Amino acid sequence: MLRMVALFALLLCASACVSILPSPSVAADFDGSKPLVCTVITVNECLESEGCMAVAPEDVNLPRYLWVDVAKKSIQDKKAEEGRKSRIESVKRVDGKLILQGAEEGRADVRDGFGWTIAIMEDSGQMVMAASGDMVAISAFGACTSY
Known about the structure:
By secondary structure, this protein is an alpha+beta fold.
């Protein structure tokens, strides 16, 4: 009888452990196979001469929502075609993260071009973004969901 109770407890523990693991369908939502919408939650701007400070996304011309389509190699600030777009130059999967990279020219006659990287955690959809330009760095944190 004691053996049966121990076996039952072991099976119960094993099933509980398996149930807390992320399911493959959830993880697949953030591997680039489906379009995503990412919400920018916190942003920091770092200037060489002033250090880093928390800012609102609009203070650094960063949209609050980013529509990410890895298949089309596109990130834009609106789901509709009229939104501002950035081309994804590089896509890699590294240690459970979807890594997207690109660079922007900026405005004509203004030295405001920059490079950027977005890392999306494949198991949770959490996002970290970094962008750098002339003596400025932007970091942003947020979360993504498939649509």
